[in-house]
Prior knowledge:
Layout: H1 2-21, E1 24-31, H2 51-65, E2 71-74, H3 81-92, H4 100-103, H5 106-117, E3 125-126, H6 144-159, H7 163-169, H8 171-187, H9 192-199, H10 202-212, H11 225-245, E4 253-259, H12 263-271, E5 276-279, H13 281-285
Parallel strand pairs: 1-4, 1-5, 2-3, 2-4
Helix pairs in contact: 2-5, 3-5, 7-8, 8-10
Amino acid sequence: MKKITLFTFLLSLPFQLLAQSGKIQIAFLGVFHMGETPDYKQGSLSDLLSANRQAQISEVVDALAKFKPDKIFVENTPDTQPFWDNVYKNYQNNLRPKERNIEYNEIYQLGIKLAYKLNHPVGVTCVNYVQPELVPGLKLAKNKLDTLLSFYSHELERKRPSYDNYFKANPSVNKALKDYLARYETWKDLSIKDHLIQLNSEESISTLHYFNITGWMDTNTNGYGAEFTAKEYFRNTKILQNILLKVTPFDRKLLVIIGGGHIQVLRDMLKTHPYFEVVDATTLLKQ
């Protein structure tokens, strides 16, 4: 019994220290994936490396730097951390990535460049979670629960309709997507900062949440609407868990750079947390 009590005390110690030092501010910056992405629709910019666009990137980085985040979390899985550590080290030595998909990635364009501007000893921290599927093989499962989850996830994916069929079967979701894409096209003429301000507006974030997550339940596509929605929620809880595991009592401000479809869930979960204060990302960009 004493061992359990001691373990519980040690586990909760960081948050006990947080209670004494005030809340940690955390901002969630929703982004479009600037380079390659498996997303159904892509929001890349073909001229991202032009002098004009790079000046706009610098404008965004300068605005975010005023927030002075102690950690910069990005949408890549923890197993890729050594890779991005190396990218950051190379950037510090004025070496650009040779791979186009890395140089176009928002992790590089925003996260790495922001870390460099702030002179962070560590660049970015990877916190993404990829849904477990049976395809890579059960040898990747860490425990019995992970094995069962892999079976469940694989079986559920067999029931998932193509996205074309999903939108065709859900008129309200299809309309939300088409209206959003129409607005998105007008944002491409904006500077990257103004583009991100539009993307992170309350209307934009809630619409992304709807057609990415909760829209699956509208007509209960293939009879598994709630399961598809729950799977997306589960992914975001794992992302948040990865973030929390990296927080220390010494952190005062945190920035999460992640696809816009994740923002609503992550913000809602942390809004109820007694030791965190969610900061509106648009206020950072407007500074």
